[in-house]
């Protein structure tokens, strides 16, 4: 791996890296997209995302679905996992967590398009779902349903 120029500058892949203590401390990394110029969708699913309520300090839980159409860069998945883990000790409202994650990945990867869906488990009896996307879906991009059912409680 060290001899491959694709991996130059990656400081986390293949290394023991402690979990960052905050999103600001977390380092996203990217690699060249071997299919730059081809329209395709990549999906990351984080069904056990956690953050903290900024008021009570209690844990909040979400199921995140991140869909993006890469441009010249792919987000390196270990760095993404560490970035998402960094929210475990971070106090922020659901909307802030979801939108901040989407914007940071979109800007960092210079993606063609990105959508993040945050399905948050109930707080005070009310589930909060947060959605953000960078713009209109590019023509010809296959974007499947997120596969996450709406919250039904004991339904």
From TrEMBL:
Query: Where does the signal peptide begin and end?
Result: none
In its UniProt entry, the species of origin is given as Hyphomonas johnsonii MHS-2
Q: What does this protein do?
A: Catalyzes the NADPH-dependent reduction of 7-cyano-7-deazaguanine (preQ0) to 7-aminomethyl-7-deazaguanine (preQ1).
Q: Which residues form the active site?
A: 53, 60
Q: Does the keyword NADP apply?
A: yes
Where found, per UniProt?
Cytoplasm
Q: What is the lineage of its organism?
A: Bacteria, Pseudomonadati, Pseudomonadota, Alphaproteobacteria, Hyphomonadales
What is the name of this protein?
Answer: NADPH-dependent 7-cyano-7-deazaguanine reductase
Q: Which Pfam families match?
A: QueF
Q: Does the keyword Lipid metabolism apply?
A: no
């Amino acid at each position: 791996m060290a001899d491959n120029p694709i991996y130059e500058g990656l400081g986390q892949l293949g290394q023991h890296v402690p979990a960052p203590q905050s999103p600001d401390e977390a380092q996203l990394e990217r690699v060249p997209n071997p299919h730059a110029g081809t329209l395709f969708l990549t999906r990351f699913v984080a069904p056990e995302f956690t953050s903290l309520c900024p008021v009570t300090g209690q844990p909040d839980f979400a199921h995140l679905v991140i869909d993006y159409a890469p441009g010249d860069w792919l987000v390196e998945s270990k760095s993404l996992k560490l970035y998402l883990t960094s929210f475990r000790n971070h106090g922020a409202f659901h909307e802030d967590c979801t939108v901040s994650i989407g914007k940071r990945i979109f800007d960092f990867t210079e993606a063609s398009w990105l959508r993040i869906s945050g399905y948050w488990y109930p707080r005070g009896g009310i589930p909060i779902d947060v959605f953000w996307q960078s713009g209109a879906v590019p023509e010809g991009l296959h974007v499947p349903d997120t596969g996450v059912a709406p919250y039904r409680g004991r339904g």
